[in-house]
Design a protein that fits this description.
The protein is α/β, with parallel strands linked by helices and 438 residues long. The protein has 2 domains: 51-231, 3-Layer(aba) Sandwich (Rossmann fold); 237-406, Rossmann fold (3-Layer(aba) Sandwich). It is built from 12 helices and 17 strands. The chain has helices spanning 2-7, 10-24, 75-88, 150-167, 190-197, 212-220, 237-240, 267-280, 315-323, 339-346, 376-392, 416-428; strands at 51-53, 60-67, 93-100, 113-115, 125-129, 137-139, 143-147, 174-178, 205-210, 227-231, 251-258, 288-293, 299-302, 305-311, 325-329, 350-353, 368-370. The strands form 3 sheets. The chain has an 8-stranded parallel β-sheet with strand order 4-5-3-2-7-8-9-10, with helices on both faces. It has a 7-stranded mixed β-sheet with strand order 13-14-12-11-15-16-17, sandwiched between helices. Helix 5 links the parallel strand 8 (174-178) and strand 9 (205-210). Helix 3 crosses helix 12 (416-428) and helix 8 (267-280) crosses helix 11 (376-392). The longest helix is centred in the middle third of the chain and has 18 residues, at 150-167. It is elongated and about 70 Å long. The N and C termini lie far apart (97 Å).
Amino acid sequence: MIRRLVRSSPRLTALARGVRGAVLGVPPPTSRPTPQPHLEDRIPELRRIDPRQSANGEIRLNLLIPTVDPRATYGGVRTAVDLFAAVAAPVPLRRIVTQVGLEPGTTEFEGYACVSPAADAAAARTIVTFDGTGGTLPVGPRDVFVATFWNTAEAAFRVREWQRAVYGRTPDFLAYVIQDFEPGFYPWSAQHLLARSTYERPSETIALFNSGLLCDYFHAEGLAFEREFVFEPRLPAALRAFLPTGSGGRERRIVVYGRPRTPRNGFPLIVEALRRWRATYARAAEWAVVSAGQPHPDIGLGPGTVLRSVGKLDLDAYGQLLTTSAVGVALMISPHPSYPPLEMAHLGMRVVTNRFGAKDLATWHPNITSAPDLSPEGVARAIADACDAYEADPSGGGRETLRPDYLSDEPTFPFAAEVAALLVAGAAGGAPASPARS
């Protein structure tokens, strides 16, 4: 009777189990701990450069860049390295500080010695791999920094504060290679705020904008610098050999600028559009579709059609692919012009891309279409129209650029000597006070 009564009451059952456990020496059962939610208490993009005093008292120009590994670099990194070389030309001491070192046998940086952060190297040109997991970087009172991405700028500003505290002063300026509106890489977040904060030191920053379009976007956002310089995209010298000279044959092939891990390139939208194109375009089965950029698994688009990744290509293989293909699809959801649509169009492909604010690459080349409808169906229609244009004229359509400066042989960075003079004078303590814009 008592057992039946206890079993009929959950409260009495729990009490009985507790008494039994105490008598037998077994602790009463406890509830499982409630799982704690994952806390985002770190900002992984931040790069810590811990400086130490250096024996070097000479002016040294430092490029801060995430990587110079040719296997992992795209157009923006290549542009930053070229710009640094132009600005640093009159400066004897140069150092590249990067997170990813060079593979043995790499020849892109001949004349540079790869050294450890532990060494206070006296060589004229050095590459230091500094990942922030240990060790310190030797920094002197006249080390001047060229930043290339928001987290390298944030790190450089902190090192400059250290210079001021340790040496009593810091060079007047750092140079900041700005190639996109980088707060837009993140949803509203800590990273968004930090990226934007690197644009808010107008008097100590020499801004080097990749395109007038991007510079205008910054001004529309209320962001400007006392010293600003602008350069425009140019077709890389290695691709000029592939400029169309006649009516060479092209294959029925669509080339996608495919970067699945880079949201601003709209990879999922491209894939959805291609699936709709495959389902609705009458001659789709006659076309091949390849993705160049970041490697990824093959993706089925419909019966018999696969988006095949060729990964990252060197410029020669890339030029061969573009000059033998008919249609390109390359999106860039940012104010930066983006290299692939311009390269594809100038090498004779019909190209589908997107507008962004005041950016419309259709004003750069007649082979470019800025899709008016950026739904999957709208982009699919634009791709079908490009395929139809190829069928009507397989030679490649209009070849005359609407921006002759894109093919110019003039220096890409005509302001390089002026920027070098500002940085050197600022490190020596005599930079001009009047603002400069070009």
